Amino acid sequence: MNLGRQINNLLDDILEINRVRDDKLKKHRSKLEQEDIEDLSCGEITRKEQEINKATNNGQNIRDIFTNDYYVNDMIQDRQLRAEEVKRENDSKDHLVFDERIAELYSELEDNSNN
């Protein structure tokens, strides 16, 4: 694997850590749980940064690595990433709709049992 791809993969890992952290922070409301989540994600990000520094010799090996005048954007990968993002968004919306529907049915059952 070339250095540019290795760096991109590590940066993608950092983005994924941040996304997962944000999702977990939304679900956990207590201050203690949120602090634990922050601490864990900061530790993981620090490890990824150390890997980047190791791979790039603390930034000495990356001069002009991302300045290729002939770079062509990988449209297929962009589409795949966007499709995954849309699927995640839709999945989370489906859960909300499902939860709301369950609440409605439960409410209807309570109303019927009271009558």
Task: Determine the N-to-C terminus distance.
Answer: 69 Å
Beta-strand segment tally:
0
Give the structural class: mainly alpha
Helix run count: 3
Which stretches of 5+ consecutive residues score pLDDT under 50?
Answer: none
* Order of SSEs: HHH
How are the secondary structure elements laid out?
Blueprint: H1 3-27, H2 31-55, H3 75-114
Give short descriptive properties of this protein.
mainly alpha; 3 helices; 0% strand; elongated
Would you give an account of this structure?
With 115 residues, this protein is mainly alpha-helical. Helix content is 78%, strand content 0%. The protein contains 3 helices and no strands. It has helices at 3-27, 31-55, 75-114. Helix 1 (3-27) packs antiparallel against helix 2 (31-55). The termini are far apart.
Quick structural summary:
This protein is 78% helix and 0% strand. It is mainly alpha-helical and 115 residues long.
